[in-house]
Automatic annotation (TrEMBL):
This is EAL domain-containing protein. GO terms for molecular function: cyclic-guanylate-specific phosphodiesterase activity. Residues 1-168 form the EAL domain. InterPro entries: Cyclic-di-GMP_PDE-like, EAL_dom, EAL_sf. It comes from the Bacteria. Transmembrane segments: none annotated. It holds the Pfam family EAL.
């Protein structure tokens, strides 16, 4: 399983007509393959100038860069824009995930967002997973992956290789 590096990008990045070319140049300079890069975009960044953002996202997607909508469910995106975006993934905001075992409304929202994402052919990630119980429930709901303290606290670079080899979330023995 290849690793990807996820980078948050801002509204100003999406509004910069040279941004896709800058990303292509950085990939060429480093020798990184486009599919190794995942750019995370917030709904708010998309809504600032939707037509410009959609064009930039389209160029990046056609280059092979992976794109995800970060903090999904907290912005003001229209479902009409969601179907136009060439993204592969939505990341459900932690504000819904963290209390889904104790807050019925949060659980309904999470279940609905997982269904929406899958019905649109998108991968769904839950952010803010801080307990095994929440992760177990997310798996039952069909969530594709998760991030949060239940998986790992931040890891210093010199400890990453060991974590990847020995963590239940890593790539044992590879």
């Amino acid at each position: 399983m290849p690793l990807t590096i996820a980078v948050n990008i801002s509204a100003s990045n999406l509004q910069d007509p040279q941004f896709p070319e800058s990303v292509a140049a950085a990939l060429a300079r480093t020798g990184a393959r486009p599919e190794w890069l995942e750019l995370e975009i917030t709904e708010t960044a998309i809504m600032k100038e939707p037509a410009v953002a959609i064009a930039a996202i389209g160029k990046l997607s056609h280059m092979g860069v992976q794109l995800a909508i970060d903090d999904f469910g907290t912005g003001y995106s229209s479902m009409a824009y969601l179907k136009k975006l060439l993204v592969a993934k939505i990341k459900i905001d932690k504000s819904f995930v963290m209390d889904m075992n104790t807050n019925r409304n949060d659980a309904v929202i999470v279940r609905s967002l997982i269904g929406l994402g899958h019905n649109l052919g998108l991968s769904v990630v839950a952010e803010g997973v801080e307990s095994a119980e929440v992760w177990d429930e997310l798996k039952v709901l069909g969530c594709d992956s998760a991030q949060g303290y239940s998986m790992s606290r931040p890891i210093p670079p010199d400890k990453l290789d060991d974590w990847l080899r020995h963590s239940p979330w890593g790539f044992k023995g590879q």
